[in-house]
Amino acid sequence: MKIGILFFVFVLALNVAFATNEKTIQLTEKNGLTIKQQAFDGVDFSFSINEIKIKENLKKGQLYTELEAENFIPNGKIGFPALPSYKQLIEIPMDAQVEVSILSFDEEIINLNESGFINPIVPMQPSLRKDQDPNSVAFIKNMEAYSTNDFIATPLVEVQESGIARTVRLARLVISPMQYNPVANTIKIFKNIQFSIRFKNANYAKSQEIKKKYFSPVFENQLKNTVINYSSDILKDQITQYPISYLIISDRMFETTLQPFIQLKTRQGYKVTVAYTDVIGTTTTAIKNYITTQYTNGTPQNPAPSYLLLVGDVAQVPTFAGTTGTHPTDTYYGTMNGSSDIIPDMYIGRMSATSTTQLQAILDKILEYEQYQMPDPSYLQYAVMIAGVDASNAPTYGNGQINYANQYYTNNSNGISPYTYLYGSGSPITSNSSQAAPAIKQNISNGIGFGNYTAHCSPSGWADPSVSTSDVPNFTNAHKYGLLIGNCCQSNKFDETECFGEAILRAANKGAIAYIGASDYSYWNEDFYYSTGVKTITANPTYDATKLGFYDRLFHLQGEPTNEWFVSAAQINYGGNLAVEQSGSNNVCSWEMYHLMGDPSLLPYMGVPTT
Question: What range defines the domain where residue 131 resides?
Answer without folding.
Answer: 2-203
